[in-house]
Amino acid sequence: MDAERRYEEVADDLVARGLAERAKMFGMPSLKARGKAIGGFYNGDMVFKLTDATSRAAALALDGAHLFEPMAGRPMKEWVQVPAAHADEWPRLAEEAAVITPPSG
Fold this sequence. Notes:
- The chain is α+β, with helices and mostly antiparallel strands.
- The chain has one domain (3-100): Alpha-Beta Complex (Aspartate Aminotransferase, domain 1), CATH 3.90.1150.
- It contains three helices and six strands.
- The chain has a six-stranded antiparallel beta sheet, covered by helices on one side.
């Protein structure tokens, strides 16, 4: 399956279940939960904000996954970029990001 199409399926599912809404971040298609960015589609991969250290470590253990770095030399410490090769993991990671992200305040 095409990576962008898979992202759209994941996004549609979260939106339909009321866990997220569509947004833009860094010019990329993104998702927000309770007013906070939780994920997006970047260069054929999906990125996730995983504030839980255990969830983040598990995502980083996936082959090819790494901290999201939209600007060279400035990785975002809670954000993990997961390659399309692991698109089967995207729904689970997206739900974790939506559920564990603290509300805005």
